[in-house]
């Protein structure tokens, strides 16, 4: 085991002793005796299976058959989630064939960040994760279940489902993916047309044509953003069947994997002798495994918050130094857009998850003494699923990359480190993803140009006010201010400035998309400007130095001058009303800082004494 990975794991265990112990006590208490619906009254139970057919009623009454909860984030808004429409029927049939029952316990909301990007709805994006976690709890609180299946893929949905299911960590829980859409036009071509449009060199029709050829059918978008990062992390944490993350939707293999996932959940319940609840799978080692795989593949920066919140839901306290130390210890093994021109389908063709497990296990970068939904250890995850005469079987995966331009090796990586750096300085702490940066773009010192709204930056760009070396500061984008939206639509104008040869960078207390990459961006800066962060004192022309090599983010203004300055007051009312945002004031006020996961769910309620 790599010494740094071991050391980070041990310090997470040490700092989380009390919170993890409390968590385990909570889920052991919830385990109760026998099937959980056994504690319900006859009235409760009758309500719970009133709509079931006679067979299922008999099975549920018997208390000896497993009842599996289906929690689904199906909707038609996310191309990634549309395939879930047919899954409940598939799952119920599969579970029925093994003598158990599955009930659709509840739906959870899901926002497509691609639809809301650059629009008011994006202000709800991060908070929707916590709503998804709460919605998962509402569904499981019927307490009729012996296991659960989580149907979710995209950005905040998997983190929300993980947080919600960990609150019911006594239940065996299997995550059910649906897979990526087939490849469309290359993501780099899509990005080229966007930049051309930003410069007025492409028409809106040409832009829509390119976008529609990139996002063209059901399935997850093919760039390596937060959605595909979610799949990879959940599989490495042992919550998917081996190799199921990136099998395309609407294929016989995908359907076979969905049925098999449902049956696997019935095998892990407390009714048999193979009980394996999610709270015993998600432990410090599986969380560190998820971090290793995320960072070894240049995964989404959003996980510097989501995985913090997920870990907290399992009783673990992790921080950005854990991310940074692991990033420095793992090599960059893949080049998937935005960290290259390949997409997730090319990653699969080059070796996919089976090869990733193989490379990381052989290099001692993954803990192998872990629990998974398929038993102990990760060896089975070096295999990949195939249909043989209609039967789902697993075969040894590739031992070496089938396309070294997409998937390298630990011995000859694309970069010696994972390409995520933590920045520290008088402006606070932030993160920067360097895996997608061109050489020479990791250290920039330039005058600040300050914005308090991403749309103002657009106007300044179009007016030619940014055609110079500059560090654009977009502040009052943090959790407590406006809910920490993604500012991904800034990538095309900033990319144009970079291509014109200017030294340009972004500094913000907001987020970027997992699909953002080419422009150096110090993001998630905490404390946020709205909450006393020094960003609130930055003025146009101040010199800022962003240095990802030594991890510094510094406002080069002397202390006396800063002491004389007042914090700028935020003018954010236009972000607090409309599109439902007025209903989230309470949640915004309780969101923790970015490094604590920007989460509203772990405030301990002080007992009224
Ligand atoms: O974190 C992410 O991965 C993004 O939120 C992603 O889910 C989002 O949909 C992007 O906006 C898509 O990229 P484009 O906006 O470039 O299509
Ligand atoms: S990857 Fe992003 S754009 Fe694609 S479906 Fe998911 S949320 Fe929407």
What distance lies between the first and last C-alpha atoms, to the nearest angstrom?
49 Å
Shape: globular
- Biggest sheet features: 8 strands, mixed
Residues in β-strands, percent: 5-15%
Low-confidence stretches: none
Description:
It comes from Bowmanella denitrificans. Its EC number is 4.2.1.12. Residues 406-598 form the Dihydroxy-acid/6-phosphogluconate dehydratase C-terminal domain. Belongs to the IlvD/Edd family. The chain has helices at 3-15, 17-31, 42-49, 54-62, 87-96, 113-116, 125-140, 157-167, 187-198, 204-214, 226-236, 252-267, 278-281, 284-296, 303-313, 320-329, 344-350, 352-362, 454-462, 479-482, 491-499, 559-564, 585-590, and strands at residues 67-72, 101-107, 147-151, 173-175, 371-372, 375-376, 383-388, 391-396, 420-425, 428-433, 443-451, 470-474, 504-508, 521-526, 543-547, 552-555. A hairpin with a 2-residue loop joins strand 7 and strand 8. 37% of the residues lie in helices and 14% in strands. 56% of the residues are buried. With 609 residues, it is an alpha/beta fold. The protein contains 23 helices and 16 strands. Iron/sulfur cluster binds at residues 78-80, 112-114, 154-155, 220-221, 225, 227.
């Amino acid at each position: 085991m790599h010494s740094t990975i071991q050391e980070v794991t041990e310090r997470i265990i040490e700092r989380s002793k009390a919170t993890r112990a409390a968590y385990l006590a909570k889920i052991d208490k919830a385990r109760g005796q026998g099937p959980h619906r056994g504690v319900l009254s006859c009235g409760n139970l009758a309500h719970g299976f009133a709509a079931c057919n006679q067979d299922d009623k008999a099975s549920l009454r018997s208390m000896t058959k497993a009842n599996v909860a289906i929690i689904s984030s199906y909707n038609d808004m996310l191309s990634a989630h549309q395939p879930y429409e047919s899954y409940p029927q598939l799952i119920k049939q599969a579970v029925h064939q093994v003598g158990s029952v599955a009930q659709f316990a509840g739906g959870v909301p899901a926002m497509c960040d691609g639809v809301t990007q650059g629009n008011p709805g994006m202000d709800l994006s991060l908070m929707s994760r916590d709503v998804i976690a709460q919605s998962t709890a509402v569904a499981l609180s019927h307490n009729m279940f012996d296991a659960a299946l989580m149907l979710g893929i995209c950005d905040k949905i998997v983190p929300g489902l993980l947080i919600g299911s960990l609150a019911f960590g006594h239940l065996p829980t299997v995550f059910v993916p649906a897979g990526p859409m087939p490849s469309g036009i290359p993501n780099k071509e899509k990005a080229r047309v966007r930049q051309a449009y930003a410069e007025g060199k492409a028409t809106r029709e040409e832009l829509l044509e390119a976008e529609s050829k990139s996002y063209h059918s059901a399935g997850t978008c093919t760039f390596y953003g937060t959605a595909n990062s979610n799949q990879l992390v959940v599989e490495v944490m042992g919550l998917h069947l081996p190799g199921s993350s990136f099998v395309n939707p609407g294929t016989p293999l995908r359907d076979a994997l969905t049925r098999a996932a449902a049956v696997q959940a019935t095998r892990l319940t407390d009714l048999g002798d193979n009980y394996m609840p999610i709270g015993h799978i998600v432990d410090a080692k599986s969380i560190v495994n998820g971090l290793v795989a995320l960072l070894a593949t240049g995964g989404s920066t959003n996980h510097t918050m989501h995985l913090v919140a997920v870990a907290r839901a399992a009783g673990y306290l992790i921080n950005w130094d854990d991310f940074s130390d692991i990033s420095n210890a793992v090599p960059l093994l893949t080049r998937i857009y935005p960290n290259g021109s390949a997409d997730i389908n090319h990653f699969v063709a080059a070796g996919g998850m089976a090869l990733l497990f193989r490379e990381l296990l052989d290099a001692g970068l993954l803990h192998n003494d872990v629990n998974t939904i398929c038993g102990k250890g990760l060896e089975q995850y070096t295999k990949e699923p195939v249909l043989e005469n209609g039967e789902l079987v697993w075969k040894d995966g590739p031992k070496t990359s089938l396309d070294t331009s997409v998937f390298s090796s630990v011995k000859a990586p694309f970069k010696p480190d994972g390409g995520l750096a933590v920045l520290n300085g008088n402006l606070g702490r932030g993160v920067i993803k360097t895996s997608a940066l061109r050489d020479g773009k990791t250290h920039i010192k330039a005058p600040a140009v300050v914005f308090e709204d991403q749309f103002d930056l657009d106007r300044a760009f179009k007016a030619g006010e940014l055609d110079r070396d500059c560090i654009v500061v977009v502040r009052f984008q943090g959790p407590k201010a406006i809910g920490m939206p993604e500012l991904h639509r800034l990538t095309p104008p900033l990319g144009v400035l970079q291509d014109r040869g200017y030294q340009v960078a972004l500094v913000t207390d907001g987020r970027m998309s997992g699909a953002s990459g080419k422009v150096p961006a110090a993001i998630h800066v905490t404390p946020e400007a709205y909450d006393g962060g020094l960003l609130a004192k930055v003025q146009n022309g101040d010199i800022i130095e962003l240095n990802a090599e030594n991890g510094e983010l510094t406002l080069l203004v002397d202390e006396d001058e800063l002491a004389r300055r007042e914090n700028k007051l935020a003018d954010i009312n236009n972000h607090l009303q409309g599109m439902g945002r007025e209903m989230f004031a309470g949640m915004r006020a309780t969101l923790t800082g970015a490094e604590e996961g920007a989460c509203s769910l772990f405030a301990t309620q002080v007992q009224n004494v």
